[in-house]
Structures are given as structure tokens and as C-alpha cells.
Amino acid sequence: MPDSIAVLTMPDIRTAANDTPGKALAERIKAVGYRIAARAILPDDAEA
Questions:
Q1: pTM score, whole prediction
Q2: Which residue of 16, 18, 27, 43 pairs with 12 in a disulfide if CB–CB is 3.0 to 4.6 A?
């Protein structure tokens, strides 16, 4: 099984439909043989 990477997008003005940077990053990660374990958008006001 290939190594896995999670993609986290900030800020929360993005949605799954318009997160083009996150989508591009995920595609590049997959292109070099990694598996996307998770993708999420982190709200600006999330607790650290």
C-alpha cells in the first residue's frame, strides 16, 4: 500500500466545489504515487 497524505485547505472561503488549489495539490500527490487519506477545509475560527 502506498504512503498516505491528508490535504488540509485554509481559509474556509473555499468549498469542496471551488477548492481548486486543494484539488490541484491532491492530483499532484496522487501523480507521484501517494494515496489521499483525507481532504478537509479548516474554518478560520477553529481552535488550535
A1: 0.74
A2: 43
